[in-house]
Structure formats: structure tokens, C-alpha cells
Specification:
This is Carbohydrate ABC transporter permease. This protein is an all-alpha fold. It is 64% helix and 0% strand.
Length: 297
């Protein structure tokens, strides 16, 4: 006689209800978005004022009644900086581009080699050299202007690209960032390169640099923006109008007799465009590169 057993009833699963969201997290996220939005608006205010004033007439800019937008957009203001006979604005843009690119490439080469040597090459005085590099960060730039100018002048580099670029190739801060990055670079990759017969220089060029392009791009962004915006040194070296950079050219639109506001703002807007394009193109590498330096706030 056979008996049949019925399987136990399967436990019924309760339908999953809606997840409870903590009110504190919602308020915190909302506050974060609001604060970020306010900070973004405050950051964009100067750009709004530059574009607004660049497309206005001088009476509208200096008028008593505030206007959020031009009553009539002055598109003809765009060509005025290039038509001004007192300042060769196109030449100054070209000079800034040449100085910015060559200054960036030279600084990356010099400072990356210095940072790699301080981080990897065994040398009993390496820490002393590193501390000496840090000391240079405490010296005001204006203090070195006179001896630097005397040296550049004695070499005949006044009003030349060499005088504008070479004295500023080394940066203690950039060297420090490269050293911090290379200290955290995986040593296993370099050891494998040395097994293949490469020295320090070979490992640097064939292993370290190809695997550090994100960080190099971040440093290139910072260095290019700094070189493009530099004013005091180009003002001292670029004495001839043909050697003016864009920042020096902008300062010449303001004279003791006249100030043409729409011309200044339009020239400023045009000079900002290359920096905006560089930043938008390399911004993600900029954030990643700074995060890879090992610096903690």
C-alpha cells in the first residue's frame, strides 16, 4: 500500500513595498543641490557681465538705469579689437598661444623629470633637494624679477619668445605635484622594465609617461591657463608692441585719457575663449589628475 505525501505549502512571499526614504537624506541632498546651484550662478556672474558689456554701447554700460540685456545687440563690437590701430590684438593672441603652448610643454618636461628623479632615483641628498624646491614656493615672484630681467637682458632675450618662455619653465609647485604622483606610481611596472634592460630614463619614457597621460593632461591644463594669464613677466620682457601677449594688450586699452568699455570687455571675452575650450576639453583629466597627486585636504 503506497502513501502519497503532499509537499509542504510554499511560503508565500510578501510583495515588496516601497522603500522608505529618510527625510534627512532628502533634505541634505536638496540642500547640496541648492548650494551647488548658487555657487554655479555666482561663478557665472562675471562671465555674464563680460558678455553683456561686450555687446552693449558705452552709454548703456555707464547709464544710471541697469539693463540685464542690451537693448540692441552690437555684433559689430566683435571686430573692433582687431581693427584698433593702437593695439595689434591678433598678434597678441598669437604670442599668447605660442608662449602658452611652449611654456606648457617645457614645464611638463622639466618638472616631470625633476619630480621623477626626486621620487625614484636613490640619492642621499634627495630630501634636501626636495626641501630646497619647496623653499622656492615661499619666495615672492616679484623678488626675482630684477635679477631675472638682468640675466635675460644680458642674453639679448628681451622682446623674444625665449625671454618670455625659458625663465618660467621650472615651477616648484608643479615639481612637487609630479613627485607626489610618482611616489604613488606602481613600482612593479618600472621593475619589469628594468628586467628588460631599461634604465631610469627608459622606464620613464616607455612605462611611466604612457601610463600617466591623465595626470600629464591635468598638469598641462593648469600650466597653460597660468601661462596664458601671466601678466607681470610679459609686461617686463615684451617692451615692443610686437612682443605683447594678450594680457599686456588688454592693459593698453585703458589709458589716462579714454576708456572704451565695450572694447575692453569684447577683447576680454575673446581672450577668455581659448581657456574655456581648453578647460571644457580637459576638465575630467584635471579632476582625476589632482586626485592622483595623493594630496589630502
Amino acid at each position: 500500500m503506497t502513501t502519497t505525501t503532499t509537499p509542504p505549502a510554499e511560503r508565500a512571499e510578501a510583495p515588496a513595498g516601497p522603500r522608505k526614504v529618510r527625510s534627512g537624506s532628502v533634505i541634505g541632498s536638496t540642500g547640496l543641490y541648492v548650494a551647488t546651484g548658487i555657487a554655479a550662478l555666482l561663478f557665472l556672474v562675471p562671465f555674464y557681465l563680460i558678455v553683456r558689456n561686450a555687446l552693449m554701447t558705452d552709454p548703456e554700460i555707464t547709464g544710471e538705469e541697469w539693463k540685464w540685456f542690451p537693448s540692441e545687440i552690437q555684433w559689430g563690437n566683435i571686430s573692433k579689437p582687431f581693427d584698433d590701430p593702437s593695439v595689434d590684438f591678433a598678434r597678441s593672441l598669437w604670442n599668447s598661444a605660442v608662449v602658452g603652448v611652449l611654456h606648457t610643454l617645457g614645464t611638463l618636461l622639466v618638472c616631470s623629470l625633476a619630480g621623477y628623479g626626486l621620487a625614484r632615483i636613490p640619492y642621499k641628498h634627495a630630501n634636501k633637494v626636495f626641501y630646497a624646491v619647496l623653499v622656492t614656493l615661499m619666495v615672492p615672484t616679484a623678488v626675482t624679477f630684477v635679477p631675472s630681467f638682468v640675466l635675460v637682458s644680458s642674453l639679448g632675450w628681451v622682446d623674444t619668445y625665449r625671454g618670455l618662455i625659458i625663465p618660467g619653465l621650472f615651477s616648484g609647485f608643479t615639481c612637487f605635484l609630479f613627485r607626489q604622483y610618482f611616489l604613488g606610481f606602481p613600482k612593479e611596472l618600472e621593475e619589469a622594465a628594468r628586467v628588460d634592460g631599461l634604465g631610469y630614463m627608459g622606464a620613464y619614457w616607455r612605462v611611466v609617461v604612457p601610463n600617466s597621460l591623465n595626470f600629464f593632461a591635468a598638469m598641462a591644463t593648469i600650466t597653460f591657463i597660468s601661462g596664458w594669464n601671466s601678466f607681470l613677466w610679459p609686461l617686463v620682457i615684451g617692451q615692443d608692441p610686437s612682443a605683447w601677449t594678450v594680457q599686456v594688450a588688454l592693459s593698453n586699452y585703458m589709458t589716462g585719457q579714454t576708456i572704451t568699455y565695450h572694447l575692453i570687455f569684447m577683447a576680454t571675452a575673446i581672450s577668455i575663449l581659448p581657456l574655456v575650450f581648453v578647460f571644457l576639453f580637459l576638465q575630467r583629466w584635471l579632476v582625476q589628475g589632482i586626485a592622483q597627486t595623493g594630496i589630502k585636504g
